[in-house]
Design brief:
There is one protein chain. By secondary structure, the protein is an alpha/beta fold. The protein has a single domain, classed as P-loop containing nucleotide triphosphate hydrolases (Rossmann fold, 3-Layer(aba) Sandwich). It contains ten helices and twelve strands. The strands form two sheets. The chain has an eight-stranded mixed sheet, sandwiched between helices. The longest helix has 18 residues, at about 185-205. It is elongated and about 65 Å long.
C-alpha cells in the first residue's frame, strides 16, 4: 500500500540577483510513491532538490504545483498550524535532521527534548511521560540515566540517538531522514545506520532517506530515486536492479564512489559533475543533464525526456536510451 503519493510536484523560488528576479525550479515534476514499511533512497549531488522535496513531504513548505498525499489525504491542503489535520501529519511524519546539535535547544535535557512531542500528541501524565522517555532512550541504545544530561553533554552520535528517540515519541508512520549520518564520524555512522534499520523492521516504519552516501542508501533502502536539476533521472522500485541502472548521470554518480566503481559498467573516470544553474530555470525545456552528458543528442537540448519503463519497476528519463 502506498503510504505517501507524490504526484508531479514542483517547487519554484524567486531569486533576486543584480537587481533582476529569476525563477528557480528546485523541484520540477517529481513523482514517486513510498510504500508502507519500505525505504526510498533519494540521491543526487548538492542542489539537485532532494532536501527541498524532504521539506515538502513533511509539510514545512507547500509545493508550487502538484500534490503530496499521506494515506490518500493531501498534506499541504489548508496549510495552517491551527488545522487539526495538519497536526496529525506532524505526528505521523517525522523529520530527522542532518545536524543534531542544530536540531535541539542546547539548554534542554534529553528528557525535555523527548518529552515535547509526548506533551503535544499524547494524554500521558508526568509520571507516564517520564517512564516513556526512559523507554525511548533504551530503544535507541542509551540508558535511562541519560535523560538528565543536557544536549551539549552528548557526543554527536549520542545526540542523534536522542533526536531519533524524539521522533519516535509521537508514534509516527514515516521518517524523513535528511542526511542523518553526514555530520557523524565514520565509526558512529555504521551504528546509527544499524539502529535505523532495526527500528524500521521492529516498527514497520516507512523511510525517505535523503543522502549523498550511496553506500548507506544501498544498505537501508528498498527503492532508489536519482535526482538531478530538480528532476528524476532514474528510479528503481527494487534494489535488485541496482547494477542494471543505465542513465549516464547515475553511472557517473556511482563511478565517483570507489566501492561501486567495480560493480558498475563505467569505463570513464570519475570527475566533477557539478550542476549548471541554468537547468533549473523554468525557461529551459531540455534535459537538465544535457550540458554534461557524454551521450547527448540535439533532441536532449530541445525537449525534456519522458520517464519510460525499461523493465518492471525500473524507470529512466533519457532521450538516448
Amino acid at each position: 500500500m502506498s503510504l505517501i503519493e507524490i504526484q508531479d510536484v514542483k517547487k519554484e523560488y524567486k531569486v533576486r540577483k543584480y537587481g533582476k528576479t529569476y525563477s528557480l525550479m528546485a523541484v520540477n515534476g517529481v513523482s514517486f510513491n513510498v510504500e508502507e514499511g519500505r525505504c526510498v533512497g533519494l540521491v543526487g549531488e548538492s542542489g539537485c532538490g532532494k532536501s527541498t522535496l524532504g521539506r515538502l513531504i513533511v509539510g514545512l513548505e507547500n509545493p508550487s504545483e502538484g500534490s503530496i498525499a499521506f494515506n490518500g489525504e493531501i498534506i499541504h491542503k489548508n496549510h495552517s498550524r491551527k488545522n487539526p489535520s495538519k497536526l496529525r501529519f506532524s505526528r505521523e511524519i517525522q523529520l530527522v535532521f542532518q545536524d543534531s546539535y542544530d536540531a535541539v535547544n542546547p539548554k534542554f535535557t534529553a528528557k525535555k527534548i523527548i518529552e515535547e512531542p509526548l506533551k503535544n500528541f499524547t494524554d500521558l501524565n508526568p509520571s507516564q511521560r517520564d517512564e516513556k522517555v526512559e523507554e525511548l532512550l533504551e530503544q535507541v541504545g542509551l540508558v535511562k540515566e541519560d535523560k538528565e544530561k543536557f544536549a551539549m553533554e552528548f557526543s554527536g552520535g549520542q545526540l542523534q540517538r536522542v533526536c531519533i528517540a524524539r521522533a519516535l515519541a509521537s508514534d509516527p508512520k514515516v521518517f524523513v531522514l535528511d542526511e542523518p549520518l553526514s555530520s557523524l564520524d565514520v565509526s558512529v555512522q555504521a551504528q546509527i545506520l544499524n539502529l535505523l534499520s532495526d527500528i524500521k523492521t521492529e516498527m514497520n516504519l516507512s523511510y525517505v532517506l535523503i543522502s549523498h552516501d550511496i553506500e548507506a542508501v544501498y544498505y537501508l533502502a528498498d527503492a532508489l530515486v536519482v535526482m538531478y536539476g530538480g528532476q528524476i533521472m532514474e528510479k528503481i522500485d527494487d534494489l535488485s536492479y541496482f547494477e542494471k541502472m543505465v542513465h549516464p548521470y547515475t553511472k557517473k554518480l556511482l563511478s565517483s564512489i570507489p566501492v561501486f566503481e567495480k560493480r558498475t559498467d563505467v569505463t570513464e573516470s570519475a570527475e566533477s559533475i557539478g550542476m549548471d544553474v541554468y537547468v533549473q530555470n523554468n525557461t529551459f525545456k531540455g534535459c537538465p543533464y544535457y550540458g554534461r552528458c557524454p551521450d547527448r543528442i540535439e533532441e536532449c537540448k530541445e525537449s525534456k525526456p519522458e520517464m519510460k519503463e525499461l523493465a518492471t519497476g525500473h524507470f529512466v528519463a533519457c532521450n538516448v536510451l
